[in-house]
Ribosomal RNA small subunit methyltransferase I (Frischella perrara), 249 residues
Amino acid sequence: PSTLYIVATPIGNLGDITLRAIETLKNVDLIAAEDTRHSGLLLQHFAIEGRLYPLHDHNEQQKTEALIEKLKSGLSIALISDAGTPLINDPGYHLVKACYQNQITVVPVPGACAAITALSVSGLPTDRFCYEGFLPAKSKARIDLLTQLKQEPRTVVFYESTHRILDSLQDMLNVYGPEKIVVLAKELTKSWETIIHSPLKDLIEWLKADDNRRKGEFVLIVEGYDKVNEQEIDPDAIKLLNRLQQEIP
Ligand code: SAM
């Protein structure tokens, strides 16, 4: 009672649901979901007869109060999103925060998350990374953000949609140069799963070669800034080096 479960669901392949997720969804009094129609199908697939309650980005703040009242009255609630882990670019932040303010227990039921799934097969350093979610929709804001991140030494993870994938990669090319290593992970766990690890210039060529390649859901992972290899060498230093080389016998 009085527990909010944050339950991860699959990001494509339904086989990725966990035993604990099914058990939790079967046992709670109420399931708060982003899209009740979409989640209804998931529940149906696993023969879960849960009561659904809509909670999306636009109404989360106002629905939080009602959900907190239900939790306080002793109901247990599970929060799920359309795919993957709730709160990772999905609703739930206001609700979880409010639980702490109201002494309500929050229990994680972990599972799939596109960012972590992509990172695990990226072939880029994973000891330190940062997550940036979706890049801004407008090119100017996108370039500003990419420029701010230019000297970020950690691996950087972005989410991207089918509409902007090419524009975002073009902006990355302009800011980071053609040789920057980027990993594109699309349709993870689904039939058309594709993971490409290559310099930006080749990645863009690959994407342009076939319209179908731009369709689907994407994670983009950018190699961190490497001080030793990427630092632009001071032109004065190069001049000095050349002179020294000429003078040394
Ligand atoms: N909560 C989700 C998670 O845990 O990853 C993310 C939800 S966010 C609204 C949706 C975005 O996640 C997509 O636009 C895409 O960038 C990424 N994504 C979700 N599923 C994916 C998949 N199967 N393959 C690649 N990217 C995926």
Notes: The mean pLDDT is 95. Residues 11-12, 81, 83-85, 88-90, 113-115, 159-161, 185-190, 217-219 surround S-adenosylmethionine (CB under 6 Å). Strands lie at 3-7, 30-33, 52-54, 77-80, 105-109, 129-134, 155-160, 181-186, 194-199, 218-222.
